[in-house]
Design a protein that fits this description.
single chain; Rossmann fold; Arc Repressor Mutant, subunit A; 2 domains; 5-stranded parallel beta sheet; 10 helices; about 10% strand; Response regulator transcription factor; CheY-like_superfamily; DNA-binding; Sig_transdc_resp-reg_C-effctor
């Protein structure tokens, strides 16, 4: 690990994390930010980081809004939520929102290091998450990345496919030609990395795509 950004509005927390990382990861270059705006500015200026450790509750941040903003602006940078809150389901919600890990501030130093190493190895980390849960989170995140690659119009078409509509019904509903619908469906299958409409429906149902509409 070469570059880490610690974003927390409490200086003592930043000092503690800096000490843990400096001892565990030799010659790691550390950056600090006391606000989300400062964190974003540092990433913009300095480029990619191996990890961003982001406090869940900072001024001006509501829920996972800070996490979502960083993930949207810097999708290649893994963000680990570091939080004093440990409500049930919070860690899973953080991972679902795009975090690479969820590290409680109450963890002992060795456990924090182990958690960061887990994330650096390309895996998700959350307290007490077993292997099955971790595998499910990785699969869900992969499916979501594929869905995010679809254009808005392709997502509309996919929702109609999930609803069980045939190409001619989709063409009628969207007032487009059959050729256009077929082109959209072909592109959707390619981006989702599946070979049939049925496979596409099964895949996206795992993340409940279209079920909120």
């Amino acid at each position: 690990m070469e570059r880490v950004l610690i974003a927390d509005d409490h200086p003592m927390v930043r000092d503690g994390l800096r000490t843990v990382i400096a001892v565990a990861f030799d010659q790691c270059e550390l950056f600090e930010a006391s606000s989300l705006e400062e964190a974003a500015a540092i990433i913009e200026r300095e480029g990619d980081f191996d990890l961003v450790l982001l406090d869940l509750n900072m001024p001006g941040v509501v829920g996972f809004s800070g996490l979502v903003e960083l993930r949207e602006r810097f999708p290649s940078v893994p963000v680990v939520i570091v939080s004093a809150a440990q409500e049930r389901g919070l860690a899973r919600a953080a991972l679902a929102a795009g975090a690479a890990g969820f590290v409680p501030k109450s963890l002992r130093r060795g456990a924090i290091v182990d958690a960061l190493k887990t994330v650096l190895a390309g895996n998700f980390y959350a307290p007490e998450m077993d292997e099955i849960e971790a595998a499910e989170m990785i699969e869900d995140a992969d499916i979501q990345r594929r869905l995010d690659s679809l254009t808005p119009q392709q997502k509309v078409v996919l929702k109609l496919v999930v609803a069980g509509k045939l190409n001619k019904q989709i063409a009628y509903d969207l007032d487009v030609s059959m050729t256009t619908v077929k082109a959209h469906v072909s592109a959707i299958l390619s981006k989702l990395q599946v070979f049939s409409r049925t496979q596409a429906v099964i895949l996206v149902n795992k993340v409940k795509f279209g079920q909120d509409s």
